[in-house]
Write a structure and sequence with these properties.
Low-confidence stretches: none
Mean pLDDT: 82
Strand content: 15-25%
Helix content: 10-25%
Number of strands: 2
Distance between the termini: 36 Å
Shape: elongated
Radius of gyration: 14 Å
Structural class: alpha+beta
């Protein structure tokens, strides 16, 4: 890639209200993964403001 070329990294993810495939509700783990991916644009689906995390913190 030359100096004038740019890449745009886009992530879209259905987070299923913060519940992983191991059935563990851990919104912070999802945040860590999103940070590791280092996308320029992130779109997340199924973010439920009515659901509380294990630490009683709103998901957003």
């Amino acid at each position: 890639m030359t100096e004038t070329e740019h890449k745009l990294r886009v992530l879209t993810w259905n987070i299923h209200r913060g519940v992983g495939i191991d059935f563990c509700h851990d919104i912070h783990r999802i945040g860590d993964v999103i940070g590791q991916i280092d996308a320029d644009i992130v779109a997340i689906q199924e973010v439920d403001l009515r659901t509380k995390s294990d630490q009683s913190i709103d998901l957003l």
